[in-house]
Amino acid sequence: MNIATVNYPAPTSPFTPRSAGAITDFIVHHSAGPKSQTPMQIDAFERTEGDIYIPYTWLIDDKGTIYSGRPPEFISAASYGRNAESVAVCLIGNFQKDDKGYNGPPSTAALNSLYDLCLYAHKKYPSIIRTYPHGSIAHLFFEDDDNYATECAGDQLNALVPGIKSRISKLLVKK
Fold first, then answer.
1. Vertex 56: Cα angle to 31 and 35 (nearest 5)
2. Cβ-proximal residues to 43 (8 Å cutoff; 6+ apart), any chain
3. What pLDDT is attached to residue 155?
């Protein structure tokens, strides 16, 4: 699998390292912006929000290109409440149908890359035991949903995650 390297500006503070065995969650996000966004634009925006570097481990554009993000050997910053345990993939686009910035469902190319990346991550990090959309963190791990509630990865992508999990589970069993 090809992962395009992005030359982001240096982090503004040191990363926090972690062991590969600490990664138990594969979390799916959307950028909630236009499909024309680039990883560099997302990084620049996240830095204005106080992040030290792109928060996602990988990003996928509408053409299916997978881009590098925050190195997986460092704690993610994309999934509040689960950063230490997760790797995060962000599909570029807004997949929330009732949002004014909605720009259609994820493309077939993006979804195929998401399947490939999810399978790759599960093989590289066999400690991954959960795959879910970002918005599920509140429901899976915390009683106080208000502090963690989000519609991410958008209803159009969220609805596809169970199928992704099922497909990956079947592929992993065959290997």
1. 25
2. 6, 8, 9, 53, 54
3. 77
Per-residue confidence band for 172, with pLDDT thresholds at 50, 70 and 90: confident
User: Domains of the chain: which residue ranges?
Assistant: 20-174
Q: At residue 97, what is the residue type?
A: K
Question: Which amino acid would we find at residue 67?
Answer: Y
pTM of the shown model = 0.90
CATH architecture, range 20-174: 3-Layer(aba) Sandwich (3.40)
Q: How far apart are CA 146 and CA 7, in angstroms?
A: 36
The pLDDT tens digits of the residues spanning 144-158 come to 555 555 677 777 888
| Mean pLDDT, the chain, integer | 88
